[in-house]
Q: What sequence folds into this?
């Protein structure tokens, strides 16, 4: 089937999408947007997080057809012409990135939190990031990064 | 494979009638997992996410009509005052992105014994509004589930909404799991006090083939509170009353051993959360009396 959607500000028309495919598959396999990671495919890890119509979602749990006519922002769409989003910059400065696989999902989840809660406390950060798994950092540097980004 | 994308409720019901074998998908948080893992190979997907009517909240005769497409996030944000038990349960589901997508109708439709909405809906005496192109009917949540992942929903039927009485007293939801997020309940328990009618509502999750009410516990507590005039005088509850309530809740469970926990542990944990739930709700009802 054909899926038409806006991804990172660009209108895209994608043909040959299988009806059972997820939005994650569409982004990675049809549009070559590899920033959105494929890990658990069951909503447990948050690596595939994107915005769909301004709402944070696990793209692995969205059928591609559900994004028809929608607006998607992936991690690639957060930076502006090479200028990183404050959340991305804070992750670098705080040392919140080790292997980097989970980072796009954490960045999206932190970005979403700070849109709604500009100056979150630790408990709010932990709840907002509770759907994202990191196996390297032990999370503390990620929480530090969110506090750092909150001031900007 | 067909991908059906109705944009109105009438279109959705027509599609359901025409494709009874279609798998219905709303938030996708259950269905897409099954598809991604190759456990489900539907001949058609019926996507309800564009049916705007299903996302509506309404109020009528002391009830909240929660459209089947209302997300956990909306329940948490919009209903904590009117439906505190359901709102508390919604907050325990998955993680923020899961709660942004998952819906109350999807939770009921999946009919998992572990569905987090089910215990508070049982405790509140909620009813499910079910429709097909031909008819519309409502069924008590207590009669909706017929087995693990099976409900009374017919092949041409869809869930339109859930009617939940607005709270008239304290309500709680407790969920036992290995962490606070991303957990399928090992067991769960909802309690609702209905002081306006002298009733007590309970719901047990993840400890039986279907979500269960602890009817003997409800009757015991209703009897005690009614006979002693406690709804009016609001005294402290004696240990014997709390103990008996907890024992009857644990006794109502029909748990099995599985990967998440043993039957014995589930029964034990239900007794503990039943005791705490009663103390929390009753303390709230007493409102700081000495």
A:
């Amino acid at each position: 089937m054909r899926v038409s959607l806006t991804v990172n500000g660009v209108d895209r028309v994608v043909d040959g999408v299988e009806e059972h495919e997820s939005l994650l598959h569409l982004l990675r396999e049809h549009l070559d947007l590899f920033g959105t990671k494929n890990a658990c495919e069951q909503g447990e890890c948050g690596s595939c997080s994107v915005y769909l119509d301004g709402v944070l979602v696990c793209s692995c749990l969205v059928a591609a057809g559900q994004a028809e006519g929608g607006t998607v922002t992936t991690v690639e769409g957060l930076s502006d012409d090479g200028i990183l989003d404050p959340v991305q910059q804070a992750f670098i400065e705080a040392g919140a990135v080790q292997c980097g696989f989970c980072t796009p999902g954490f960045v999206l989840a932190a970005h979403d939190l700070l849109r709604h809660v500009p100056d979150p406390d630790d408990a709010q950060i932990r709840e907002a990031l509770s759907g994202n798994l990191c196996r390297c950092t032990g999370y503390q540097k990620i929480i530090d990064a969110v506090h750092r980004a909150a001031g900007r | 494979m067909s991908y059906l994308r109705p944009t109105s409720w009438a279109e959705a019901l027509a599609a359901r009638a025409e494709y009874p074998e279609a798998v219905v998908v709303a938030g996708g948080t259950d269905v897409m997992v099954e598809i991604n893992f190759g456990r489900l190979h539907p001949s058609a997907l019926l996507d309800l996410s564009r049916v705007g009517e299903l996302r509506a909240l309404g109020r009528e005769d002391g009830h909240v009509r929660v459209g089947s497409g209302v997300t956990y996030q909306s329940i948490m944000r919009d209903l904590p005052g009117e439906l505190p038990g359901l709102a508390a349960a919604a907050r325990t589901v998955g993680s923020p992105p899961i709660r942004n997508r998952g819906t109350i109708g999807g939770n009921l439709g999946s009919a998992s014994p572990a569905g987090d909405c089910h215990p508070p809906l049982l405790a509140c005496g909620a009813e499910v509004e079910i429709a097909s192109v031909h008819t519309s009917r409502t069924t008590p949540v207590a009669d909706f589930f017929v087995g693990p992942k099976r409900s009374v929903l017919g092949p041409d039927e869809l869930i339109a909404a859930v009617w939940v009485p607005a709270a008239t007293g304290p309500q709680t939801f407790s969920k036992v799991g290995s962490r606070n997020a991303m957990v399928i309940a090992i067991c769960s328990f909802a309690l609702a006090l209905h002081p306006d009618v002298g009733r007590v509502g309970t719901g047990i999750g993840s400890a039986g083939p279907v979500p269960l009410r602890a009817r003997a516990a409800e009757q015991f507590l209703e009897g005690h509170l009614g006979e002693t005039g406690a709804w009016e005088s609001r005294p402290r509850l004696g240990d014997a009353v709390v103990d008996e309530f907890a024992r009857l809740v644990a006794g109502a469970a029909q748990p099995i051993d599985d990967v998440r926990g043993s039957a014995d542990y589930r029964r034990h944990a239900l007794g503990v959360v039943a005791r705490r739930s009663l103390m929390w709700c009753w303390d709230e009802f007493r409102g700081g009396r000495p």
About this structure: The domain at 171-286 of chain B is CATH 3.30.390.50 (Enolase-like; domain 1).
